Structure formats: C-alpha cells, structure tokens
Amino acid sequence: MGGRALLSRIAGGGPTDELESIVAHLRALLNTRVGESPCAPRLGVADFADVVHAFPGGAQQLAASMRATILEHEPRLKAVSVRHLPSSGELTLRFEIVAQRADRPGRSLRLATTVRPGGRVEVAG
User: Fold this and answer.
1) Mean of the pLDDT values across residues 35-62?
2) Angle at 29 between CA 11 and CA 34, to 5 degrees
3) 3-state secondary structure of 75
4) β-pair partners for 85
5) Helices within the chain (DSSP H only)
6) Is 65 exposed, middle or buried (0-12, 13-18, 19+ CB in 10 A)?
7) Cα–Cα–Cα angle for 82, 123, 75, nearest 5°?
8) What pLDDT digit, counting tens, does each position of 78-114 carry?
9) What is the CATH number of the domain that holds 92?
10) Is residue 70 classed as helix, strand or coil in its secondary structure?
C-alpha cells in the first residue's frame, strides 16, 4: 500500500507524507472503540472506561488492545510493541509505540501516545 488513500488524494487534503499518514491513521484507530463500527466490529481499542477500574492491570489490557488493533488495521507497520510508561501523577496514561515500517525494513518508528481523561488518545510522531 503506497501513498495516501484514494479519497484523501481526490479531496486534496490530509497528510502529505507517509509518516504523517500513518500517524493520522493511528489517531483515528486509537480513538475508535471496539464495536463502534457495524461493518468492522473488531475495529478499535477497548473502551478506556471499561479498563480504568482494573488498574494497574488495565494499562496492560489497553496496551494489548492498542497493539492488536494496530497489527490488524495498519498494514504499513509490523513488529509492533506498545509499552505503558509511568505517568507523573496526572490523570493521563502514557504509552510508547515502537514498530517497523513495512516499506523500510530495519527502520524503527517510535511514537508517544497519551490517553487523556475521557479516553481521548493523542499520538505524536
């Protein structure tokens, strides 16, 4: 899969390079909850509200859900790992996503991911 998605190219908007496109797609994936898409019921991650009461194990559940979603729905990445990082007492969860780009073997991609109160996920490249 090379370049931007067809509808993005037609519309003339959206990310202009592959890395920006991957990060934008991860933002969309990680802000979708399992079951929100009737045509793709496994699309998305576990609902933050469902795992927040199971801490500290809930952070590992969320990391596993994020990893599974990325592996299944982002074909431009492989060898994905998602690791929970300690937070500084804020009401946020931090994760590090490390993956290999399928089009550039041997080159790692590292992304900082923050889950804000309410479950909103931010992804920074």
Assistant:
1) 77
2) 130
3) coil
4) 94
5) 6-11, 18-30, 48-51, 57-73
6) buried
7) 60
8) 999 999 998 776 778 899 999 999 988 888 899 999 9
9) 3.10.450.40
10) helix
Looking at the structure of the chain, the number of domains it has is: 1
Are residues 96 and 83 in contact, defined by beta-carbon separation less than 8 angstroms? yes
Q: Which residues contact 45 (CB under 8 A, 6 or more apart)?
A: 29, 30, 32, 33, 34, 62, 65, 66, 69, 121
Q: Is residue 23 part of a domain?
A: yes
Could you write out the three-class secondary structure of 82-115?
EEEECCCCCCCEEEEEEEEECCCCCCEEEEEEEE
User: Average pLDDT of 38-58?
Assistant: 75
How do residues 6-20 score in pLDDT, each as one tens digit? 565 556 555 568 899
